[in-house]
Amino acid sequence: xVLLYCNTFTPSEVRIITENPExxxxxxxxxxxxxxIKFDQLPEPEGRGKLIFRITERDKLARVINAxxxxxxxxxxxxxxxxxxxxxxxxxAFLRGAFLAGGSVTAPEKRYHLELATPHRSVSREAFxxxxxxxxxxxxxxxxxxxxxxxxxxxxxxxxxxxxxASGAAMAIMTAKVEKEMRNTITRQINCDNANADKTVAASxxxxxxxxxxxxxxxxxxxxxxxRDAALLRIANPEASLADLVLLSDPPVxxxxxxxxxxxxxxxxxxx
Length: 272
Fold this sequence. Notes:
Blueprint: H1 2-5, E1 8-10, E2 13-18, H2 21-35, E3 51-55, H3 58-67, H4 88-102, E4 103-105, E5 114-118, H5 121-133, E6 139-143, E7 146-151, H6 154-163, H7 167-217, H8 225-236, H9 242-248, H10 255-266
Helix pairs in contact: 6-7, 7-10, 8-10
């Protein structure tokens, strides 16, 4: 996974570039264990930024290529050696190495995006098939000469991270998702409340304008008693909602009844 998703893997060079100090600290142990070799170039001690590991000695490269079951003459077209990935633990280890060498995940506070990038198109297609077999549904694209597999759903990203052993990162993704959904819910509720408040104010202003017109042109006494009571109730409570006016009504009325009376006030014309 590391080799197929690293910066360079050819018959003449292996070059792994990472900015992750924990991964950098693990690489020499991995290559010693897997191939019994040491890197020809290591990052400077206490190095920061891009940390570069290289293998250029022909014998070491041949040992790596043979161990992975590749033909040095055909190494320009790399493939995933599924013979090495028959066990579930091996498939998981492959994905872990691919992510550490060629993967990235965006901070969930910004957006949900995890990707695996490799310069080898055939490797990306075969990794796609492997992910499908493991129950994942990645998307595919091309960018800057690299083949990408990516996820944009928080749940899928969390599941992938959990599978490769990054349960803490997976929990951070889901925590960010819950917090974001809570903020969105609160924002929607506030917007809804504001919209309802605006509607209440607009309706109240229209009703008060109609009442003033009636007072000015006909006098409040021109209204039938039920409408006059409704008009006085609105004048006394200019900012109240319809539901609040119902609670203040004496004698009690239903919401639909009070709404009907206010609508009649809006269109009131005295009978001749």
